[in-house]
Amino acid sequence: QPKTQTTVKYGSLTPKHRTDSAMVNFRNYGLGQFIHWGLYAIPGNEWEGVSARKGAAASEWIRSWSGPTAPENWKETYDKLYQQFNPKAFDAKAWARQAKEMGAKYLIFTTKHHDGFALWPSRYSDYNISASPYKKDIVKEVVDAYTAEGIDVFLYFSVLEWNNPDYMLKAPQTEAEKKRFQRFLNYTKNQLLELLQNYPQIKGFWFDGTWDQSWIQAYPFTYALEKELRDKHPGLIIGSRFRNDEHGKRHFDSNGNLLGDYEQGWERKLPGDYSWLNGNDWDAVMTIPPNGWGYMKDWSGLYTKTTDDLLEMLLQAVSMNGNFVLNFGPDGQGNMHPEEDTIASELGQWMQKNGEAIYGASHADLPISKYGYYTQKEGYLYLTVFNRPVNNILRIALPKNSKEVPVAAELLAGGEPLLLKHSEIGLDLDKQAYYDIQLPRGFQTDRAFVV
Ligand code: JFZ
User: Fold this and answer.
1) Ligand 1 atom nearest to CA at 58
2) 374: burial class by Cβ within 10 Å (0-12, 13-18, 19+)?
3) What is the distance between the alpha carbons of residues 12 and 379, in angstroms, rounded to a whole number?
4) What is the atom index within ligand 1 of the atom nearest the CA of 293?
5) pTM of the complete model
6) Ligand 1 atom 3 nearest Cα
7) Tens digit of pLDDT for each residue in 339-376?
8) Are 363 and 350 in contact (CB under 8 A)?
């Protein structure tokens, strides 16, 4: 069927597959860290009789999702939390060291979430970190510390603000509303330019809160703003959640072109099939609890993901050319949750031994393996095994007459050579060539292993 092309004036501004060094680096990251930190870290999902919904709770939404026991003036109370924001244990260098040990190659950090509170001393809003007892520029501390560890920094920025009188959900109608919303747009632009100016090391923005009609209808403004941000900061990486075209199409414009440099819709879920992705760059952001991004005091009674769950998701992402970004929600003092510490260290131990199968690795064009996930790089094929065969023989089926054939196999961690045999026995010998890899007798590890 012939595809009809729609006229799109405010469509994609960048090519589908950028090949500049910033984007090549992005493609090679493999593993990233997300940090949600802000005033919501103080309540930690439950506070003074207020409790966000358990299970479905997104602790950073407590201002909106406060439970039935919330007092009348809860929102006003929340908006005063900044007066007690004084994270005594906050040590950006310690966070950055931990991220480095975990094996993260990039960080996405919340400069301002939906509550509107800026973690940097913004000239464009008084509702910022300078007004808190902490006073110091948290964004600067984080950007500097991570950059010093060689970890690239991306800034999370929520456009929508719950408590900004100039913000509105619907597109402005009256002249007064138009004027008010234009003020909000200018403010947003000023803050973004301010972030670029203050923190020139950053590699990109991770936008959020761009789904309301007010923003959707402001497409001439957002189009021009994206252009300006890119002009001011060559190489800047922006995901597909920043803006829409003039037909209201988000993520992809009306002709199906990705809006931005990578697909940003994979949030607490992963694509099931490589072909859906259509060659687009993407990342997936993931919580450890079911749906809490900000600090949650109490993880009991929730299924919180294990290190193995997360490793499997990492492999699922990288095997389909995506990055996997794991979220941390530090508490109001600046400490990570103890279970986050454990997971970071376990992931780090695994990455230390097996990172070669992740960093710079990409999709291997092979049928899905029942044992785990294939990745490939520079003539090497990696198989990360989550399901160990009981007979200790890993069977790899390659298309018959494939130009590339395996010549040797080894365990990635430690490099132990493994017996590899071309097998004459198989179900589909006309179409496939079978290779059997003998795992060491009694082979056991506590985590997935890579051949
Ligand atoms: C947003 C935020 O509301 C949330 O607090 C958190 O910061 C998360 C990373 O992003 O939540 C979203 C945004 C988009 C979708 C779902 C949740 N989405 O497109 O499916």
Assistant:
1) 5
2) buried
3) 34
4) 6
5) 0.96
6) 209
7) 999 999 999 999 999 999 999 999 999 988 999 999 99
8) no
